[in-house]
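Duplicate of #3305? Posting structure anyway:
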């Protein structure tokens, strides 16, 4: 679950995702089996009880208003959201709710199901704000960063911080898994026809591992891509019916060397890259106005630049007795 505690307005917004039971329902291939799991599994009771005990009964938040957002549950059980709300209303008294005047259940359809009368809350606006500012405020180094190639970045996104925030990274992996599953479903692909995951970085392997568990997909991890490593076609499961179709998983998706290197190796070994998945997307190129380019272009000839720019070259061989051209 994912929550935002707004101390200023004294509101708590809880978004329930239930990642832990995603795979359980995915294993049920038939609707009848899913309905049976919904009725019998203990996770639905335990999840709600844990939520109430952890937040609702805390005297620290006795003056707060609470909204429980179940809109993301539709990712798991798209046709059963009304049953969720109905089940909660019937079982809400199993755990005594103390210290709070009101709380609401959001059913994911655009309505707020009120257990008690109250005014509307701008909970959706809070989630939108959080998504836009999370990386900027928590995972960006505004002091900038000097890359190994000498390029100066005004803002540096620290992906390690994102990975270390376990709650957030699991939430984003869950959304990626939902999008991938929706894509597979739209194409009518069965589990045996779906792609395999390919990762080549430590961060990417962490994300791919979570996706593998959620979606039940195999993955291949290749460490330290470079000229000194040797890969054989046998490493890519030649006998697997899914071999040859891969989704590259990385922390950041861009058209940089790492992605292209992974793509080239997959294609060299006879496979094909269907797409890529990651938590960040970076656009590294954009169209610039011609006058902007000209303003920073060096138009001098080499012999002119020596005079115009001015420089001194000194080497250890000179031993301090000679200098280069100025």
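Output from current build:
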């Amino acid at each position: 679950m994912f929550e935002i505690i707004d101390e200023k307005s004294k509101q708590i917004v809880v978004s329930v995702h239930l990642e832990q039971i995603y795979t359980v329902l995915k294993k049920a291939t038939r609707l009848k089996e899913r309905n049976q799991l919904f009725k019998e599994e203990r996770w639905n009771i335990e999840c709600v009880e844990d939520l109430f005990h952890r937040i609702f009964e805390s005297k620290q938040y006795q003056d707060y208003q609470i909204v429980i957002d179940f809109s993301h549950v539709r990712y798991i059980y798209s046709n059963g959201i009304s049953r969720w709300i109905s089940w909660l209303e019937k079982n809400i008294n199993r755990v005594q709710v103390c210290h709070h005047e009101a709380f609401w259940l959001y059913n994911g359809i655009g309505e707020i199901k009120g257990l008690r009368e109250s005014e509307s809350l701008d909970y959706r606006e809070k989630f939108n704000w959080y998504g836009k500012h999370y990386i900027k405020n928590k995972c960006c180094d505004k002091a900038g960063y000097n890359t190994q190639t000498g390029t100066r970045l005004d803002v540096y996104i620290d992906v390690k911080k994102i990975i270390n925030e376990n709650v957030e990274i699991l939430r984003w992996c869950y959304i990626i898994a939902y999008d991938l599953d929706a894509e597979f479903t739209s194409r009518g692909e069965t589990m045996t026809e779906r792609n395999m995951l390919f990762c080549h970085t430590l961060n990417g392997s962490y994300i791919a591992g979570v996706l593998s568990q959620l979606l039940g997909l195999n993955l291949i991890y290749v460490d330290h891509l470079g000229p000194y490593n040797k890969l054989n076609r046998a490493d890519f499961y030649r006998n697997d019916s899914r071999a040859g179709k891969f989704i590259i998983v990385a922390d950041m998706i861009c058209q940089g060397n790492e992605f292209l290197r992974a793509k080239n190796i997959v294609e060299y070994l006879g496979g094909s890259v269907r797409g890529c998945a990651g938590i960040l997307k970076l656009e590294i190129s954009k169209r610039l106005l011609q006058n902007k380019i000209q303003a920073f272009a060096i138009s001098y000839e080499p012999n002119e630049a020596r005079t115009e720019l001015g420089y001194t070259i000194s080497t250890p061989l000179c031993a301090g007795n000679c200098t280069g051209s100025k």
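Confirmed duplicate; merging threads. The domain at 139-317 is CATH 3.40.50.2020 (Rossmann fold). Confidence is low (pLDDT under 50) at residues 94-103, 106-121, 292-315, 317-326.
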